[in-house]
Description:
The chain is mostly beta strands and 120 residues long. It has strands at 2-7, 10-12, 18-26, 30-39, 46-52, 57-59, 67-71, 77-82, 91-100, 106-110, 114-118. Strands 2, 4, 5, 6, 9, 10 and 11 form a 7-stranded mixed β-sheet that branches. The radius of gyration is 14 Å and the shape is elongated.
Amino acid sequence: QVQLVESGGGLVLPGGSLRLSCVGSGSIFSLSAMGWYRQAPGKQRELVASITSGGSTTYLDSEKGRFTISRGSAKNTVTLQMSSLKPEDTAVYYCNARGYSDLVRKFEAWGQGTQVTVSS
Length: 120
């Protein structure tokens, strides 16, 4: 089993910055990709950013230039640096990881979510 633990959410003023971190543990043989999703009240969960094991990144169009995803220096970690935050960025942010638990078994895991609130 794979566990993901997020940290770094909170309340921030419009225009401010936050850094989210996610650490994976458990039965991780290899990671294919890690990413961040968010879900605002009454809306569907959406991909914010992802990064593959090779370093390729994908961003939601509205976040390009404001958010940066990167693999952490520690194994099985990913960070999301968010800047110029807007009230519409308010949501619960979830860490996601996909990979293999051994040579043949795939997994997809989710963190418990961390609240990001952008408000004055």
